[in-house]
Amino acid sequence: MSNVLERIVEVTRDEVRRRRKEVPLALLESRLAPHREGRPFSEALVRPGVSIIAEHKRRSPSAGEIRAGATVTEIAQAYERGGAAAISILTEGPHFGGTLADLEEARAATGLPILRKDFMVDAYQVYEAAVAGADAILLIVAALEPEELAALHHEALDLDLDVLVEVHDEPELNIALEVIDADVIGINNRNLTDFTVDVERTYELLSDVPAGKTVVSESGFHTRAQIEELERVGIDAVLIGETLMRAPEPELALRDLAGHGASSDDQL
Question: Which of 80, 88, 92, 117 is catalytic?
Answer without folding.
Answer: 117
